[in-house]
Design a protein that fits this description.
The protein is mainly α and about 425 residues long. It has helices at about 1-10, 15-35, 35-40, 45-65, 75-95, 115-130, 140-160, 160-180, 185-205, 220-225, 240-245, 245-260, 260-265, 270-280, 310-340, 345-370, 390-405, 420-425; strands spanning about 95-100, 100-105, 110, 135, 135-140.
Amino acid sequence: MNNKIGNLFKGDKVIWMVFFFLCIISIIEVYSASSQLTYRRGNYLWPVIYHSSILAVGIFCTVVTLNIPCRFFKVFTPFLLIASVLSLVAVFFVGKVNDAARWISILGIKFQPSEIAKGTLILATAQILSALQRENGADKNAMQYILIVCAAIIPLILVENFSTAALLCFVIFLMMIIGRIPWRQLGKLITGTVVAVALFIGIVMVLGDTSDQNDTRMTASYELADEGSVQEEPQEKSGMSKIFHRFGAWKMRIEDFTNPDPKSKYDLKEKPQRIHANIAVGTSGIVGRGPGNSVERDFLPQAYSDFIFAIIIEELGLIGGAVVAVLYIILLFRTARIAKRCANNFPAFLAMGLALLLVTQALFNMFVAVDLAPITGQPLPLISKGGTSSVINCIYIGVILSISRSAAVKKDDDSQQPATVAQATANNN
């Protein structure tokens, strides 16, 4: 029996432990934070049943993915690139709108194409970096090819979701550092990016129209919306207004975060997300109120998603918040150890890219919850209530586990020259 279980949950055991701990925390905190949903449905068990079923599907996908030898992931790259671009273009015309996010439905399954595009871009970047590695670093053309792929995907994400596009750009930049892109090229990229961001912010501040924006954005109808449900736009936009309709929201968030006036910044009527998140964190103490005893979950919009870390701190205290943060850090460093042992560059770059994506998004979410960053709408990966996004994050974990299980290890890394990274890691623990 133990052998069968061991064969099922193959790969790095530490990654598995972190994954399961995050899933357990997710089930407990989503159930606690979903009081708005339970009130609407009149069913206190529905949120936890639904979320647990999503995680069960995600774990199944993790097990399936980890059993795919990592060398086969390269085969998926061109197909995923084509699918990502087509779906990102299609969602702009036929997608349904749920707040700022656009969703499309295929065979009844609703998903955001940007979620698939994130992993696809990391997969393509890892393949380019590995193919163009030279003895003294990456080939000078590597960054050019990466930027070409990014140019096909990032702008399509940017139109609807600036924070996701910015997060993805940051992760790709970190991957280029790890992939030994020459610093001279990286310096030029940083300079160009700073200039482009400054111009973009200037355009947003000039063209952004906040007259029809409401920073609460989670109105009563939305904050009680079911996972995966979509809402039609109040009115159809066309022409330039369809392209620039998000500028007003971005402008409002920039002004909100940079406004030095405490009276304006902490106006409960105008900024309910920020205020209730601050109250949740400020009243937590060292050990918190205890699981299920949150007060702010009834008032905080998206308590079960974008602001679930504030609820975690309120219920589990600063200690609980620190434990969650440490779990993500362990995930990153354990993946780095796996990548370091890989004999080939592709699995190492891919594992690090996916780990950086998960951990960076988690840090963004935490910074927003504790008022250290402007509101971005990024959920806490593997913890926030989600649908297809949660499943896709589980697939990312499966890819990392596949690499730990099937990637060849460096011959000089262990005297016994084990066949896989997982064996080498186990022999050194």
